[in-house]
């Protein structure tokens, strides 16, 4: 069957939030942001929260089944576990986060050294490694949060600048992924509308159901144990 993207060329995964306590006593994931992608949490079970840092300040949003919360690029987010929190994640521009559109709130000295950052951010393969990565992100996150609470947004701006410096060299790889994924999905809708306007419904011959099971049902994500899907997002016909 021909490949076909998820609606809008999005990415999807399922998360079980980490239940390890950080140095501030809170259980949860690794604070981070995305620079080009909006992310959404669709809460499917349990209770928890998401802590966010943005130009508007610090906030904590309760999460329970039925809630949808989403974050614009630049929003630092930290998933907090309270009682069996389960979340389906919808990610704009599938493929970009995997290509590097996610920067952890590591301390400034790590952010300033691309090699040190890459080593610290590497995909963990054990609980110990995932917890180490989370704890390092918390070490940089807590001062950012305190500064916002004190009414000082400059440390968050400095973090934004450091994140941009880290990802700028990767943009040449991101653009083709975006064109083949999210942009192509939008262009397909335009092509269908143009065809339908002149009575051409030939694309309906390519109808059918597509099914995917997790390609990695219990990986280590930024916020928790992550069920991943390997879905073709290029919309080939």
UniProtKB/TrEMBL annotation:
Gene3D superfamilies: Jelly Rolls. This is Cupin. It comes from Amycolatopsis eburnea.
């Amino acid at each position: 069957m021909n490949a076909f993207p998820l609606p809008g060329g999005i990415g999807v995964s399922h998360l079980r939030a980490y239940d390890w306590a950080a140095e501030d006593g809170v259980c949860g994931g690794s604070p981070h942001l995305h620079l080009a992608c909006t992310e959404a949490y669709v809460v499917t079970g349990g209770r928890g929260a998401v802590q966010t840092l943005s130009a508007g300040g610090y906030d904590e949003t309760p999460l329970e089944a039925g809630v949808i919360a989403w974050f614009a690029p630049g929003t630092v987010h930290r998933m907090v576990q309270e009682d069996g929190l389960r979340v389906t994640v919808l990610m704009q521009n599938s493929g970009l986060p995997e290509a590097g559109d996610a920067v952890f709130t590591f301390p400034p000295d790590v952010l300033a050294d691309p090699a040190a950052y890459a080593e610290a951010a590497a995909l963990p393969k054990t609980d110990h490694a995932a917890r180490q990565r989370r704890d390092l992100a918390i070490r940089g996150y807590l001062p950012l949060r305190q500064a916002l609470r004190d009414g000082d947004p400059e440390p968050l701006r400095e973090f934004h600048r450091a994140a941009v410096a880290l990802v700028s060299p990767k943009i040449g790889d991101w653009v083709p992924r975006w064109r083949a994924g999210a942009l192509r999905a939008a262009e397909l809708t335009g092509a269908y509308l143009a065809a339908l306007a002149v009575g051409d419904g030939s694309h309906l011959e390519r109808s059918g159901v597509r099914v995917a099971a997790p390609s990695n049902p219990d990986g280590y994500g930024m916020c928790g144990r992550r069920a991943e899907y390997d879905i073709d997002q290029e919309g080939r016909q």
